[in-house]
């Protein structure tokens, strides 16, 4: 990546990093994690689809409006490699460093270009910390004068979480549609230089400063014992010892597949009937797939994790917060729920499987799940949902972030974690359903003419994370757009997980989800 210029001379400290921000930054500094992406396909209004200059101006103006609504898009980091990093105020942004247009050749394959760039940017690093700028960028793909474009938001996780990226895209869509009069001038914007307000921006408050995070003595003692206990005394069979943590060479493997809207609707109906959600179902399918491809000696039991957005547990946002309500904050407000699948459950599931069920093995390649396995699948999926609900019901009591407040050196902590046994075989981070319509997004038909699209909309989304070295072996990242279907992504560290295993597990997940959707 080309060197970037300093963004602004004014670097007044706004506040210290919160807990979530600090540990994510430590992972980045130690090269245990790199980038996160939420990419959306935008349908362009007819009036702009063939007017390239006006289209680019409309996009730039809406991005500027989004930046001004969300202060975390305006700030840089100071003392990033110290024990006490801070967010600092910048006086301006060079938008050429945050917005890049890619024109895809007429004879090139747009989908291939988008996917190759997606995978490459997951492993890209942001500029050196001596360059003070917000760690996010938007890459836009356009092919000729096609009526759609891909908008890829890539960011460094300390800046905000996946739910924050979802808010970015939804607000960007809203602001595109709000500009009906085509006025693209913005206060402080001169060509590609955006002068930021002189008044310090109001940053979202870290979760630990917004809500009490009580930790019971029993829970604290348990966590402390797990930290100091010698590995030889840890006989938890559910630990992911089949996948030792390896730190280098760093490379992310990413795969994804789509589920069309009809299939997704059928799956959602089944989830409701079986008292679970898509997140719970992904856990259930993953358990079956891991049980199938790993033997009982390597993995007699499993643990997994759900990344949870706690915006629902936050107090109302300040009345003058530019982002409005707490659930619309571009910030870091996630924690996790832990799931365990004991050896008796895993043994029972394996007893109902045949070796030929494994994708790519023998004559049974691609076999469907039996009725017995489907019954086990729904039971596990419902159990996972109940565990998530219980975690949400207790709020932030005995939450992992509450324990994190005792950490004084995140780089040392994360470095030590990479030397231990891996805990989770898989993780699910589902940012949910995106509103892809926005306002003024419609079409009309006049005679024999093609549809005239009068507003912007989002037709699909894809969410992906770079490999997290000390975290789960494989991380699943589903996202859906209302009325448009779902994409399921998965990542793993190339140096830790065999590519064939990752691809077979993803193949199982795609095939079994479609099997469920096609059930009469």
TrEMBL record:
State the InterPro entries in the record: Alcohol_O-acetyltransferase, Atf2/Sli1-like, CAT-like_dom_sf
What's one Pfam family here? AATase
Note the SUPFAM superfamilies from the entry.
CoA-dependent acyltransferases
Q: Indicate what this protein is called per its UniProt record.
A: Alcohol acetyltransferase
- What is the originating organism of this protein? Apiospora aurea
């Amino acid at each position: 990546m080309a060197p970037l210029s300093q963004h602004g001379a004014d670097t007044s400290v706004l506040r210290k990093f919160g807990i979530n921000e600090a540990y994510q930054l430590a992972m980045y500094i130690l090269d245990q994690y790199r980038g996160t992406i939420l990419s959306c396909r935008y349908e362009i209004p007819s009036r702009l689809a063939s007017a390239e200059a006006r289209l680019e101006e409309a996009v730039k103006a809406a991005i500027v409006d989004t930046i001004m609504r969300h202060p975390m898009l305006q700030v840089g980091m100071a003392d990033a490699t110290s024990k006490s990093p801070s967010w600092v105020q910048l006086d301006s942004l060079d938008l050429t460093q945050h917005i890049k247009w890619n024109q895809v050749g007429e004879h090139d394959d747009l989908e291939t270009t988008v996917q190759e760039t997606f995978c490459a940017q997951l492993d890209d690093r942001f500029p050196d910390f001596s360059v003070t700028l917000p760690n996010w960028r938007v890459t836009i793909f356009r092919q000729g004068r096609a009526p759609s474009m891909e908008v890829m938001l890539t960011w460094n996780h300390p800046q905000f979480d996946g739910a924050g990226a979802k808010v970015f895209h939804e607000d960007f869509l809203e602001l595109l549609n709000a500009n009906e009069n085509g006025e693209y001038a913005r206060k402080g914007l001169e060509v590609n230089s955006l002068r930021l307000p002189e008044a310090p921006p109001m940053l979202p408050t870290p979760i630990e400063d917004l809500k009490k995070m009580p930790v019971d003595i029993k829970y604290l003692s348990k966590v402390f014992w797990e930290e100091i206990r010698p590995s030889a005394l840890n006989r938890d069979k559910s630990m992911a010892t089949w996948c030792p943590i390896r730190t280098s060479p760093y490379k992310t493997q990413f795969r994804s597949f789509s589920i069309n809207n009809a299939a997704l609707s059928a799956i959602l109906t089944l989830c409701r009937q079986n008292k679970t959600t898509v997140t719970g179902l992904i856990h259930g399918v993953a358990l079956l797939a891991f049980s199938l491809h790993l033997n009982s000696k390597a993995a007699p039991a499993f643990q997994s994790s759900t990344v949870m957005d706690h915006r629902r547990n936050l107090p109302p946002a300040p009345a003058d917060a530019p982002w409005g309500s707490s659930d619309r904050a571009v910030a870091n407000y996630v924690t996790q729920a832990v799931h365990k699948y004991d050896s008796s459950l895993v043994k029972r599931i394996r007893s109902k499987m045949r070796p030929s069920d494994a994708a790519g093995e023998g004559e049974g390649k691609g076999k469907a799940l039996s009725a017995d396995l489907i019954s086990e699948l729904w039971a596990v999926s419902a159990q996972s949902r109940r565990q998530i609900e219980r975690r949400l019901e207790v709020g932030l009591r005995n939450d992992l972030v509450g324990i994190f407040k005792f950490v004084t050196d995140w780089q040392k902590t994360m470095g030590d974690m990479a030397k231990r046994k891996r805990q989770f075989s898989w993780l699910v981070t589902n940012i949910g359903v995106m509103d892809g319509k926005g306002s003024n997004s419609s079409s009309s038909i006049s005679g024999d003419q093609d549809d005239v699209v009068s507003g912007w909309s989002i037709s699909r989304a894809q969410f992906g994370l770079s490999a997290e070295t000390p975290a789960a072996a494989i991380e699943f990242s589903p996202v859906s757009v209302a009325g448009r279907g779902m994409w399921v992504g998965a990542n793993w560290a190339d140096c830790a997980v065999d590519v064939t295993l990752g691809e077979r597990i993803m193949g199982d997940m795609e095939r079994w989800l479609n099997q469920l959707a096609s059930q009469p």
